[in-house]
Amino acid sequence: VRFKGVDEMTREEDGRSGAAEIKRVLVIGAGAAGLAAAVELAREGHDVVVYEKSSEIGGVWNYTPDADSDPLSIDPQRKRVHSSMYASLRTNLPRELMGFLDFPFLAKEGRDKRRYPGYEEVNSYLRDFAEHHDLLSLIEFGVEVENVRLKKAGNGNSASESRDLKWIVRSNRFGKFNHEPQTKEDVFDAVVICNGHYAEPKLINIPGVESWPGFQMHSHNYRVPESFQDKIIVIIGNANSGGDISKELAEVAKEVHVCGRRWPETAQIKQQGNIWLHPLVERACEDGTVKFQDGKSTRADVILHCTGYLYSFPFLDTEGVVTVKDGRIDPLYKHVFVPAFGPTLSFVGLPQKIVPFPLFQAQSKWISKLLSGKVKLPSESTMMSDLKQFYDELEANGITTYNTHTMFKRDQFVYCDWILEQCGAQPLDSWREAIYFSAHANKGTSTNYRDDWKDQDLLDTATKSLVELSE
Ligand code: FAD
């Protein structure tokens, strides 16, 4: 358990003060993380505003048939589209698990009632959540944050006490009628970063691909299968997107060759029909061939990169205090706070391989209570030594830097409960962890995990508890 030992340390230093302070807080982004942050900050009495660059809430769940103007998303000048949803997408987690802690994601009459619903249902749920909590009035749409920097203290140095820190935020406002955005600067006591991490595609290097004559695309820009009719497609990556898209493309394509670093028994994709499984690509050749590391090769029309995404905070200017390298955002205490800035700068939603919405809400509760002074962070040096211990543990366990924010096995449940405990809140209901693992096991064994499951008893327990909560 990665967080063991820190509990005692934090409690000792964490004397809860009764005094509640109201802070002026900016939340960047109105996706699920930004909505969770806005609710918890408002509940705590803070003065909250959310800047959202698009005209909608929901972030990635806003499907659009549009895609980046560069199908590989390399060109920095490309027209960008935030959402990575494809038209057929259904959730990869069951809905009872996905919902926020106190706003159950229950099936509704006249809507998509499936246990693993389509993206539209998730988007509707997020809209229900925002409306129920009256969040729309807190959100300024069409406002893109361009720069976030520390307000210097009078002597030119950044304030040494995090309680005195303030942040200057420059934003571009895209009105309905003005072609050029208007720029505005504003000062906040705290900034909560919720800009998502599924919009900046990550690519792997394929030797020879520059002279390979076929078409390349990242899954961020994949929407529908039609244009892949009768093609020979190489898909790189066998995680969620790679799994779903390869099965969908196999229906229309001539051949689908899926490459994965590892192929466990429980992999979702099986070698069958026109689907072939391979290790990674060794090289792509001028004559249109793609060679795999197992010595096999195929002529291919398309290489589709389902290789994940990069963390990116293009607006954040901490003068080098925070770095983003090889998938690690450093230094971050518990994946949320930069020790030097205390609770005034926070990130919601960075952990990977998690159940996102409940974790976003737990992190947001913690941020809100820290900002109001009801709970306290350990000292900067204690947070830094905790982080060092965490990095040492990752290394000792052979976990790469790239997986710094990935939560394995039970980590996310231990993490959420630890955070909830900091806030004086109830731990997660035990059915959450049980369903997470039963759903995971089912995904590895069933070819149709979204419509065929064996944990009906757990589902019944969860539904009963969620229905009670919603009454
Ligand atoms: P986002 O939803 O990306 O929201 C970020 C928001 O910030 C956006 O609205 C964006 O416009 C805004 N923004 C960004 N930069 C700025 C800026 N500079 N200024 C102002 N606004 C800005 N999760 C699940 O729970 N279940 C699933 O089944 C599931 N499937 C997924 C499938 C795919 C293909 C992908 C990509 C993700 C999936 N996820 C799933 C994970 C999903 O990303 C999270 O559930 C969650 O929606 C992320 O929310 P977020 O608020 O962190 O980010």
UniProtKB/TrEMBL annotation:
UniProt keyword Nucleus present: no
One example GO MF annotation: flavin adenine dinucleotide binding
User: InterPro entries, alphabetically?
Assistant: FAD/NAD-bd_sf (IPR036188), Flavin_mOase (IPR000960), Flavin_mOase-like (IPR020946), FMO-like (IPR050346)
Arranged from A to Z, the UniProt key words for this protein are:
FAD, Flavoprotein, Monooxygenase, NADP, Oxidoreductase
First-level EC class: oxidoreductase
Q: What are the EC numbers? A: 1.-.-.-
Necessary cofactors: FAD
**Matching SUPFAM superfamilies:** FAD/NAD(P)-binding domain (SSF51905)
Give the highest taxon in the source lineage. Eukaryota
Q: Which PANTHER family match?
A: DIMETHYLANILINE MONOOXYGENASE
Q: Which family does it belong to?
A: Belongs to the FMO family.
Q: What is this protein called?
A: Flavin-containing monooxygenase
